[in-house]
Every structure is written in structure tokens, then in C-alpha cells.
Specification:
Strand content: 5-15%
Order of helices and strands: HHEHEHEHEHEHEEHEHEH
CATH superfamily: Glycoside hydrolase/deacetylase
Low-confidence stretches: none
Shape: elongated
Number of helices: 10
Distance between the termini: 109 Å
CATH topology: TIM Barrel
Oligomer: single chain
Largest sheet: 9 strands, parallel
Number of strands: 9
Radius of gyration: 34 Å
Mean pLDDT: 90
Structural class: alpha/beta
């Protein structure tokens, strides 16, 4: 290489200094940051589940049912709302209460399908849904205008069973049955014996609404091996708010001695009384339970004296 192509001395010195500086920076400079770690599928799933659990706990604290463990309660009360399906406004208000009421649906009622959808809509607040089975009363005129197919004392066993099956098709998710009216039919042991095997075969429980003093429905259910209970208090036989409050207080007092089943019907008076009174009863240690739980606890205690 000729001297004409050689770098000047000042250029060579500058290049040397630049190379030395670059090498020093390479040695002392921190390494580039590592790429962000990618979470595994399991970690993503765990985080998602934790968020769901936290959201559920928050919802339960703000809107979930107010319950008392059975062994810790001073009283045990089941409240059944009869005649469900005739309207929806009061039903919605009753469903909004933070207590596990039970609901009995009339199979022929105009809003029966929609009522059932509402009752079962939120799995976080499960509610017992019953078939409110129309049965013949002592006063036949009471059946007029009901729009229901009644089981009648004059029906043979096949007809009684056919009507029961048809009613169950209209309330397919029922976990239990109680009688609508029925002061005449529930006093007929042969009629009760005709329908109880079908109820037993479906694994349902039975509530005797006790609409007449001569009812043998509970005895027939027990004989068929069906978990059963009797209504103890009608909350709204007298439909004023004052009378309903008195009957609820009576039911609460009785529930401190033995579990009590009370029956009411959708109305603004009932809604108002329950909305005001149930939180107070809860604070006093009186628990409200699904009817099925009360019946199961009672059946268990009768089967085992130590229960």
C-alpha cells in the first residue's frame, strides 16, 4: 500500500480512541432487559379463578342470602309462597329478598312458565320450587273460575294419576308438591294413596297445606316413604299487614321449639312485612330455610333420635 492511501496519524489516533471507548461501553453497559415472562396456562387459569371467587364473595356480601347454620340458629322457619303464577310483580319483590323462601306454582296459572324462569334464574340464590297441586275443596264453587284442572274425589285412581302427571309436566323442575285447596280430597285416604306412589317415584317431597281439619295427606305421604311436613301457620288468612306481622311473629316464636312451615300468598302487604321483619328475625337468630332443608332435617331427626 502506498503512503498516499495510508490514514493520517490523527485519523488513526481518533479511530483507536473510538474503538477503545466502544469496547469499554460494551464491557460495562448492562445487558438488555429480558423479554417479559409469558404466564403459563395454569397461572392464567388460577388468576381468572381468583377473580371469579373474589367477585362472588363481593356479590354474596352485598346481595347474597342471609343464612344461619342450622346448629347455630335459635329458630328454624320455612316460608312457602303459594299461588305463584297469577302475577309477576310481587313475585319479583319476594325473589329480591335475601332469604331462601320457597315458591309453589299453580300449573294452570297464566304466568306459570315465566314465574318458573324467574325462580330458577340465579343459581347463586337457589329457591325450592313446588307444584301447587289443585285438589277438590269441600265447597265445589270455590273451583269456579280458577282455570285449573282439579283432582276430585270422584276420580278413579287412574284419573288422579293422569291429572297429577299432567300437572307435573307444567312444572317440570318441581322438587316438592303441596295441595291447592283440597279440604275434601286430602280427607280421602284412598285418593291420597293413589297419588303418593307417583310422588315417591319422582323423589319429591310433600307438604300438607292443611286446608281442612280432616286431612290425611301427611299420613299417606309418610306411609309411601315420602319426606313430608305439615303447614303450621297461615301468614295471611287475614290479609292486612298488621295481621300478617302477628302471624309471622307467632311462627317465629313457635320455630324456637320445633321447625315451622308457614304459608303466604303474593301481595304487597306480605312483601312489606317480610322485607321489614326477616332481617330483624335473622338478627335474633331465627333462620329462614328452604322447605326441602327443613323437611330433610326433620326426617333425619325422626330417623335418628340423636340427630
Amino acid at each position: 500500500m502506498s503512503d498516499r492511501n495510508a490514514l493520517p496519524s490523527w485519523a488513526r489516533a481518533s479511530l483507536t480512541l473510538w474503538m477503545i471507548a466502544a469496547a469499554a461501553l460494551f464491557v460495562i453497559a448492562p445487558p438488555p432487559p429480558a423479554p417479559p415472562a409469558t404466564a403459563t396456562d395454569d397461572e392464567v387459569l388460577v388468576r381468572a379463578l381468583a377473580e371469579v371467587v373474589a367477585d362472588n364473595h363481593e356479590w354474596q356480601a352485598r346481595r347474597g342470602d342471609l343464612t344461619i347454620p342450622w346448629a347455630e340458629a335459635r329458630g328454624h322457619l320455612a316460608i312457602v309462597i303459594d299461588d305463584v303464577g297469577r302475577e309477576l310483580h310481587w313475585l319479583d319483590e319476594l325473589l329480591a329478598l335475601r332469604f331462601p323462601l320457597s315458591f309453589s306454582v299453580l300449573p294452570g296459572a297464566v304466568y306459570a312458565p315465566g314465574a318458573q324462569l324467574r325462580i330458577l334464574a340465579d343459581p347463586r340464590r337457589p329457591r325450592d320450587l313446588l307444584l301447587h297441586l289443585p285438589m277438590e275443596p269441600l265447597n265445589p264453587a270455590a273451583m269456579d273460575g280458577e282455570g285449573e284442572v282439579f283432582l276430585r274425589a270422584g276420580d278413579d285412581p287412574a284419573a288422579l294419576q293422569r291429572k297429577l302427571n299432567a300437572a307435573l309436566l307444567r312444572v317440570p323442575t318441581a322438587v316438592g308438591i303441596n295441595n291447592h285447596m283440597g279440604s275434601r280430597l286430602t280427607a280421602d285416604r284412598s285418593a291420597m294413596d293413589a297419588i303418593m306412589p307417583l310422588i315417591a317415584a319422582r323423589g319429591l317431597y310433600f307438604l300438607d297445606s292443611l286446608t281442612g281439619p280432616g286431612s290425611v295427606a301427611h299420613e299417606a305421604a309418610a306411609a309411601a316413604g315420602i319426606p313430608a311436613a305439615r303447614r303450621r301457620v297461615f301468614l295471611d288468612h287475614e290479609p292486612s299487614a298488621e295481621a300478617i306481622a302477628e302471624r309471622l311473629a307467632e311462627a317465629s316464636d313457635l320455630s324456637k321449639e320445633t321447625p315451622v312451615v308457614a304459608i303466604g300468598h303474593p301481595s304487597q302487604e306480605l312483601v312489606d312485612v317480610l322485607r321489614a321483619a326477616l332481617p330483624r328475625l335473622h338478627a335474633e337468630g331465627v333462620g329462614v330455610y328452604a322447605l326441602g332443608e327443613v323437611i330433610a332435617r326433620e326426617s333425619s331427626s325422626h330417623a335418628d333420635p340423636r340427630g
